[in-house]
Amino acid sequence: MGMALPVGGGIGGLVLLLLISALTGTNPIDIINSAPPPSESAGTTGSDSIENDPQAKFVSVVLKDTEDVWTEVFKQRGARYQPPVLVLFTDATQSGCGVGQSAMGPFYCPNDQKVYLDLSFFRDLDARFGAPGDFAQAYVVAHEVGHHVQMLTGTSERVHAMQQRSGQREGNQLSVRMELQADCYAGVWGHYAAQHGLLEPGDAEEGLRAAAAIGDDRLQRQSQGRVAPESFTHGSSEQRVSWLRRGLDSGRMEECDTFGGAATF
After folding, report:
1. Rounded CA gap, 182 and 240, in Å?
2. How far, in Å, CA of 47 to CA of 54, rounded?
3. Are 99 and 92 in contact (CB under 8 A)?
4. Which of the four pLDDT bands, split at 50, 70 and 90, describes residue 71?
5. What angle do CA 160, 108, 112 make, to 5 degrees?
6. What integer best gives the mean pLDDT of the chain?
């Protein structure tokens, strides 16, 4: 993205960027290129304000549990899981994919294998999108980790190569499939998190509401009053809920094949 947005960039990345663009009438590329340079403390977890933030500690606990789950899942498949690094930042930060900023929402950068997150997104998730709750926040983290899993399994590289050879409409469809698979992978983690006692009654519903809140159709309807399915990049609310639920119910990576002929959209 002026910054090159990584393939499968994130749960809020391109969607929030397009939402802001629609509301302001600004070219998305101009939004990215006008980002202020990162401050000295941006992109680090070393500041006291972040380290002592209860939300930051919660995110770290979730990330550690995703590491435990995916380590076991990969082990069962005869593979080794290498966890991503979490970077908490404020306003803007430098990533291996360029300058990231809060307006983009959380994102995963495959170039440096890091998950970037501005904690203010969680306030937006509650206030703007009506999706409060701990598991809604955990779903956001688990979704970005899902993109990391796609990188480790080679899915990201294959999809990126296909997008290079395709037109915009087909490229968008590939992006949707990537995002829905990351939703499903978030559900796989949630399946095991419940077994670990990390989920309470009603938590899964919080995640499902969060998935519905950031569907392309809902965001487009809010921002421009109409829905344009050909421009979807993350999937509709119904699709996101469906694939997250599939992962939650099954706990199996094999159920997350959004690219197979049996995948329903």
Report:
1. 10
2. 14
3. yes
4. very high
5. 85
6. 73
Say whether pTM exceeds 0.70.
Answer: yes
How far apart, in whole angstroms, are the C-alpha atoms of residue 19 and residue 2?
Answer: 18
Say which residue the tokens 């409409």 belong to.
Answer: 169
38 contacts 167 by C-beta, under 8 angstroms: no
What is the maximum alpha-carbon separation in the chain? 50
Provide the residue count of the chain.
265
Cα distance between residue 198 and residue 164, in whole Å: 40
Buried b (16+ CB within 10 A) or exposed e, 7-39: bbbbbbbbbbbbbebbeeeeebeebbeebeebe
CB-CB neighbours of 76 under 10 Å? 9
CB atoms closer than 10 angstroms to residue 108? 31
